[in-house]
Amino acid sequence: MEYRSLGDTGVEVSNLCLGTMMFGGVNNADHDDCVRIIHAALDAGINFVDTADVYSAGESEEIVGKALRGRRDDVILATKFQGAMGDDRNRRGASRRWIVAEVENSLRRLGTDHIDLYQLHRPNPGTNIEETLSALTDLVHQGKVLYVGHSAFQASQLVEAQWTARERLLVRPVCEQLSYSLLVRSPEVDVLPTALRHRMSVICYSPLAGGWLSGKWRKDAAAPTPSAGRGANGMFRQRYDHDDPANAGKLEAADALASLADEQGLTLVELAIAFVVNHPAVTSAIIGPRTMEQLTTQLPAADIHLSADVLDRIDAIVTPGTTANPFDSAYVNPALDAAARRR
């Protein structure tokens, strides 16, 4: 396991971060099993754990809180806010009103008196970023939050947040969390170099592209059935629609990448995660196992370094800066989406 600085804070985090979206609810409802997985990750050297209030409606945070009893001081604990936590229209978003209320809920569920990294889960165009950063600054001054970050920001939004923090003397975001993988390479165009220029960490989620790089998606095999939250009626159904031409392109690429991994004596899982953590702008890749077996297959990637030749061969399979299915990027420019609909 390698350890890298979280932005320019001096705090050292592992190059693999344990994501906990798959803990609780329809994914893994066995709390004891989830706790065992978390403990195994910590024992393997991971010291960075990421969750969010919306994961299984707060259940994931509760599971993480159970797992960290007696081990909290050894872990950099990250969570997120912004998603809907009820039917009321104000129990969501990035307003001061919601932030000061929801941080208390997360602290209670996590069983801790402070959150190391508190992140805005998605951009909120209708809320002034100064409103959000001002509330987060107060939480830092109160000691309830140590550092702040955001997720799914475009490069212009990232710069706006940095400028606002500097000009208004507010807490500066130290990291951006985004979707990046062998099949989602659009962040290479602008977001990754912008984050690097501002000395921000990049924390990458979905390095296995939602399971497309698990090794199970091959041209000569039956397509696997996505988990309950990702299936035909799940929130991520567009990722797995077999009739979508964009997903057909993902299958072609996944199959070719799996063959390359075989040639290198690696699994596709190892190649995929190693590709992400080998990028100079990336601090940590979030692995999100649902089972202990998935965790053990992902851990070796932390110590794999890819040669220039392998990286060149990857580029020949997936063009740098491209994403086959824009839905996988978590953000689609509304203007481009409208243009696509007109076509």
Keywords summarizing the entry:
343 residues, alpha/beta, eight-stranded parallel beta barrel, two-stranded antiparallel ribbon, 11 helices
Please tell me about this protein's structure.
The protein contains 11 helices and 10 strands. It is an alpha/beta fold. Strands 3-4-5-6-7-8-9-10 form an 8-stranded parallel beta barrel, surrounded by 5 helices. Helix 7 (245-263) runs antiparallel to helix 10. The mean pLDDT is 92.
Individual helix count: 11
- Structural shape: globular
Count of beta strands: 10
Structural Rg: 19 Å
Question: Proportion of β residues?
Answer: 5-15%
Concise overview:
This protein is of the alpha/beta class and 343 residues long.
Outline the fold blueprint:
Elements: E1 3-5, E2 12-14, E3 16-19, H1 31-43, E4 48-50, H2 59-67, E5 76-81, H3 96-110, E6 115-120, H4 129-142, E7 145-151, H5 155-167, E8 175-179, H6 191-197, E9 201-205, H7 245-263, H8 268-277, E10 284-287, H9 292-298, H10 308-317, H11 334-342
Parallel strand pairs: 3-4, 3-10, 4-5, 5-6, 6-7, 7-8, 8-9, 9-10
Antiparallel strand pairs: 1-2
Helix pairs in contact: 1-2, 2-3, 7-10
